[in-house]
Design goal:
Blueprint (H helix, E strand, L loop, with lengths): L1 E8 L2 E9 L6 H8 L3 E4 L2 E11 L2 E11 L14 E7 L8 E7 L2 H8 L3 E4 L3 E11 L4 E9 L1
Helix pairs in contact: 1-2
Length: 148
C-alpha cells in the first residue's frame, strides 16, 4: 500500500511525496493525514483538495498555498513522539498557542481530528476550525475558533 501526495497544477497533477505502507508509516498515521485539511512540508503550505483511492493507493490532491506562515511559540517535535498543538484561529496574523498535548499514538490523534468540538485541557471546549500535519516540525496542529 502507498500514500501519495499530488500537487494540483494548471495542466494536471504532479506526484509530490509517496510513503510506502507499512515500511515507514502505520495505517493510523495514513488515516490521520487524510483528515487534515492542510499539509506543511519543505517550508511550504498546501491545502487538501481531494482525498481519493485507487486500488491499494491512497491519494491526496493538494494545492500549494505558498511559503509557510510562522506563528509564536513554534517548536519542533522531531524525535520526541507524537504531539498536537492547539492554536486559536484568526485571520489577522498570529495564531496563539493554547496548549500542547503529547499523544500515545496516531490513533489517539484521529479522535481529535474527527471532532467538531474539542476539549483543550484546563481551557474547555472549542469549536474545531481545521487541522494540519506539519512535517517540518513533526506535529499535528488543530486550529480552534470560539470557546463553547
Amino acid at each position: 500500500m502507498e500514500l501519495t501526495y499530488y500537487i494540483e497544477k494548471v495542466d494536471g497533477y504532479e506526484p509530490f511525496l509517496t510513503y510506502k505502507i507499512p515500511d515507514n508509516m502505520h495505517n493510523d498515521e495514513k488515516y490521520a493525514r487524510q483528515l487534515c485539511e492542510f499539509f506543511v512540508s519543505g517550508q511550504k503550505e498546501y491545502e487538501l483538495q481531494s482525498n481519493e483511492m485507487m486500488d491499494d493507493e491512497e491519494i491526496l490532491i493538494v494545492k500549494e498555498i505558498g511559503p509557510v506562515k510562522k506563528f509564536s511559540e513554534e517548536s519542533s517535535y522531531k524525535g520526541r513522539g507524537i504531539f498536537i498543538e492547539f492554536r486559536q484561529y484568526n485571520n489577522t496574523g498570529d495564531m496563539p498557542l493554547l496548549h500542547v498535548q503529547a499523544m500515545n499514538s496516531h490513533w489517539d490523534v484521529i479522535r481529535y481530528l474527527l471532532k467538531d468540538v474539542v476539549h483543550i485541557p484546563r481551557q474547555g471546549q472549542f469549536q474545531r476550525d481545521s487541522a494540519e500535519i506539519d512535517e517540518d516540525r513533526a506535529v499535528y496542529v488543530i486550529y480552534v475558533g470560539e470557546k463553547i
